[in-house]
């Protein structure tokens, strides 16, 4: 096989980025816009040594799980990856993804803990309370709003996203009409010119309040009164702001806000907790599933009103305040000062006085508090970013020995890695549940309960050491102990599986061997790789080197890979 070849292939699985996975003569191909069960004619676009990428040319036999996407631009748009798959099959795929990562990366026996059925949605469309639409011009010079095509900054015109609320389209049409009437230019990434970059829209599912924030490449918004008058015709319009971002960057929002009309925030609820949400606030985009996720976290925390709880990576206090009603005291930690200000304000408006918040990195604040103040916790809740937890943080949690740890994760690969670390240090996974926060995409949230494993009883046994009848020879103790201690052999296959699950790409065995050679580690367990090293040296990218080092560190392959 070679580039541009047309081949017939059956799709068997889905990759981490949503592309279908199939094999032709044992060679793995990733094919966007396909799902398991599809038989397709594909064109090979890019070839690697052991895998390649192909483009869907024709569906020969559609999968029985294939459905017609309600969005007409689902294939071009980068927002949804699996809208063409029946929803019940999406749930099965995500559930298996979590289970496989926990088993393969975390080393968890599936029979040793309870994995509850995945929490799906009755209505898996129209669930997003937030949308960010880039603004630009199409090939004909017409102003358009939409979403970027996958892995590009080409705008796919779409004002009626099937995952968002209906008000989005009405708002965008008014904004575009205002731009055309008042001669407001959209931002052009190629030259840094033009004013309007993005339109950010938030909607309160409970309050029905609407926020519109225009991200601008300037210090002021001209003709803002005309825009304000038009947008305020929409029922529920509560906040209209402009966000200043004059940097040549892919980051959407700047730090400074201009209030155009109404309040600088909207309000909404999760359960009976009210939150004030500004354009810069982090707030879960799926309020229905957020309530389910946090409800499950609260259930796992097992609070009776007497517990001290630490909520790490607390954001604007969404989980903290959910827990505070049932706990004696809650402490939240978050690195973003604005988020902590929001958290404190949200505690105040809800009359919650038993929640206290700290600004800083969780991996620095908790160890410092433990070292200098000897803080204690009955329950610790962790909701880290995709990279998971820092080892210093996990080590401190182990030393604090809380009765329960509730781990909320947006990446089951790093979750599994961290669970393995905790399990090796005295914690057991009791139960877990996947929650489908993002239907039509490959992403899934997971919540897991860990409990500290303590002995149920103590048995005192007297042992006599030395020579003679009934005594244990001292010189045999070390040998016997070593013989009983199993040592897992770390294979190249294990390292490759870890990297693919966590980072979404594959690495060649020779690359792993090359990194191990650079680190002075033995390579005897991969004779083929050793043979390849006799050839001209391979040079993996910096990204793959870092991933390999991370895997070596995870499996404790004889070296500190931070250097």
Question: Key features?
Answer:
563 residues, single chain, alpha/beta, 22 strands, globular, 26% strand, seven-stranded mixed beta sheet, eight-stranded mixed beta sheet
What does this structure look like?
With 563 residues, the protein is α/β, with parallel strands linked by helices. The chain is built from 14 helices and 22 strands. The strands form 4 sheets. An 8-stranded mixed β-sheet has the order 6-21-22-20-19-16-17-18, sandwiched between helices. Helix 7 (362-373) packs parallel to helix 8 and helix 12 (509-518) packs across helix 13. The longest helix is centred in the N-terminal third of the chain and has 18 residues, at 87-104. The protein is globular, with a radius of gyration of 27 Å. The two termini are 40 Å apart. 41% of the residues are buried. Residues 524-534 have low confidence and may be disordered.
Compact description:
This protein is α/β, with parallel strands linked by helices and 563 residues long. It has helices at 87-104, 167-182, 224-231, 287-301, 318-324, 337-349, 362-373, 391-400, 412-423, 474-484, 492-503, 509-518, 527-533, 542-554; strands spanning 6-14, 20-24, 27-31, 39-47, 51-61, 114-119, 130-137, 143-148, 155-157, 196-203, 210-216, 237-244, 256-262, 266-270, 273-277, 308-312, 329-334, 355-359, 379-382, 404-409, 427-435, 445-452. It has an 8-stranded mixed sheet, sandwiched between helices. It has a 7-stranded mixed sheet with strand order 9-8-7-10-11-12-13.
């Amino acid at each position: 096989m070679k580039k541009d070849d047309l081949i017939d292939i059956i799709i068997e699985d889905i990759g981490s980025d949503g592309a279908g996975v199939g094999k032709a003569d044992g060679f793995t191909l990733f094919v966007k816009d396909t799902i398991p069960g599809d038989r397709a004619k594909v064109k090979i676009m890019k070839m690697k040594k052991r895998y390649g990428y192909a483009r869907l040319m024709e569906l020969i036999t559609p999968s029985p799980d294939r459905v017609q996407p309600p969005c007409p631009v689902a294939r071009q748009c980068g927002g949804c990856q699996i809208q063409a798959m029946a929803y019940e099959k999406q749930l099965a795929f995500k559930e298996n993804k979590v289970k496989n990562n926990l088993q393969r990366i975390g080393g968890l026996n599936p029979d040793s803990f309870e994995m509850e059925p995945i929490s799906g949605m009755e209505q898996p469309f129209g669930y997003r309370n937030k949308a960010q639409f880039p603004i630009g011009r199409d090939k004909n010079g017409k102003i358009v709003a939409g979403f970027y095509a996958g892995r590009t900054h080409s705008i796919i015109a779409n004002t009626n996203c099937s995952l968002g609320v209906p008000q989005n389209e009405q708002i965008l049409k008014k904004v575009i009409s205002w731009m055309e009437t008042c001669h407001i230019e959209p931002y052009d990434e190629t030259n840094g010119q033009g004013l309007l970059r993005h339109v950010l829209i938030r909607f309160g599912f409970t309050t029905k309040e609407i926020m519109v924030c225009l991200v601008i490449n300037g210090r002021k918004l001209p003709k803002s009164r005309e825009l304000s008058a038009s947008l305020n015709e929409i029922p529920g319009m509560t906040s209209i702001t402009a966000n200043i971002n004059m940097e040549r960057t892919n980051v959407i929002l700047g730090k400074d806000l201009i209030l155009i009309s109404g309040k600088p925030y909207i309000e909404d609820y999760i359960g009976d907790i009210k939150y004030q949400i500004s354009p810069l606030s982090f707030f879960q985009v799926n309020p229905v599933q957020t309530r389910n996720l946090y409800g499950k976290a609260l259930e796992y925390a097992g609070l009776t009103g007497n517990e001290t709880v630490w909520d790490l990576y607390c954001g604007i206090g969404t989980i903290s305040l959910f827990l505070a009603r049932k706990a004696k005291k809650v402490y939240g930690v978050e690195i973003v000062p604005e988020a902590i200000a929001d958290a404190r304000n949200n505690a105040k408006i809800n009359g919650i006085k038993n929640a206290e918040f700290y600004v800083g990195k969780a991996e620095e604040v908790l160890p410092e508090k433990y070292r200098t103040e000897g803080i204690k916790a009955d329950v610790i809740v962790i909701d880290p970013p995709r990279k998971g937890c820092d080892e210093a943080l996990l080590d401190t949690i182990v030393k604090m020995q809380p009765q329960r740890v509730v781990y909320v994760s947006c990446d089951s690969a790093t979750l599994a890695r961290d669970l393995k670390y905790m399990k090796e240090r005295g914690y057991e996974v009791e139960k877990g549940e996947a929650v489908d926060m993002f239907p039509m995409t490959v992403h899934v949230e997971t919540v897991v309960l860990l409990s500290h494993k303590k002995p149920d009883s103590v048995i005192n046994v007297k042992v006599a050491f030395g020579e003679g009848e009934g005594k244990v020879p001292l010189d045999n103790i070390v040998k016997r102990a070593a013989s009983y201690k199993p040592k897992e052999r770390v294979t190249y296959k294990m390292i490759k599986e870890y990297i693919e699950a966590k980072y979404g790409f594959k690495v060649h065995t020779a690359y792993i061997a090359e990194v191990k050679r650079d680190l002075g580690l033995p390579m005897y367990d991969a004779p083929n790789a050793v043979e390849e090293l006799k050839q001209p040296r391979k040079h993996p990218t910096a990204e793959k080197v870092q991933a390999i080092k991370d895997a070596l560190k995870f499996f404790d392959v004889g070296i500190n890979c931070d250097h």
